[in-house]
């Protein structure tokens, strides 16, 4: 039912936006809790038919590919070991499964972070996830650049514009822009980030005030 619903909605969207240059992106729900169980009960409850013996994301990716849409997935800043052990969460494994499904269906994959994170540890995980480094699996389709096509950072608030957080974020954006083929060392990135932080300080202060309650 969900796949049929997606077909109908995307067919209507394509008829409206065809020829306009608009890119249609579909966000799939990320249900990573109890992903480590045999039953995958939370995913099944939500209508995602993903089990030990059936990949529930390949049919979704193929449906999006047929309609020229982008698959948007979240939680790419998360690591498995950061989650509560009792919940058997596995966001990294889920992101990898979805990335492999998008590769199989030849559909572009975009990502975003699920929770507001301002630390370099989360930034490093985003860089790793967005490079689609699938555990050394380099058997992508010919011409596949093996990187996410887009990334949305959540969220803009006063905490982001605190001095230390803003400095880290500037360096993170620069490294994201360069992609996994960037040649600059981390020290060079930090120096350029410091310069940008300095010249953007008045605007940042103004934005932080505007965002404050």
| Strand residue content | 5-15%
Helix fraction by DSSP (H/I, runs of at least 4):
40-55%
List how many beta strands DSSP finds.
Answer: 4
Determine the oligomeric state from the structure.
Answer: single chain
Q: What general outline do the C-alpha atoms trace?
A: globular
Strand ordering within the main sheet:
1-2-3-4
How far is the N terminus from the C terminus?
Answer: 43 Å
Count of helical segments? 8
General description of the model:
The protein is α/β, with parallel strands linked by helices. The protein has eight helices and four strands. A four-stranded parallel beta sheet has the order 1-2-3-4, with helices on one face. Helix 4 links the parallel strand 2 and strand 3. Helix 6 packs across helix 7.
Q: In short, what is this structure?
A:
By secondary structure, the protein is α/β, with parallel strands linked by helices.
Topology, element by element:
Elements lengths: L1 H16 L7 E3 L13 H5 L12 H9 L3 E4 L17 H15 L3 E4 L7 H11 L19 E3 L10 H16 L7 H14 L1 H11 L2
Parallel strand pairs: 1-2, 2-3, 3-4
Descriptive labels:
alpha/beta; four-stranded parallel β-sheet; globular
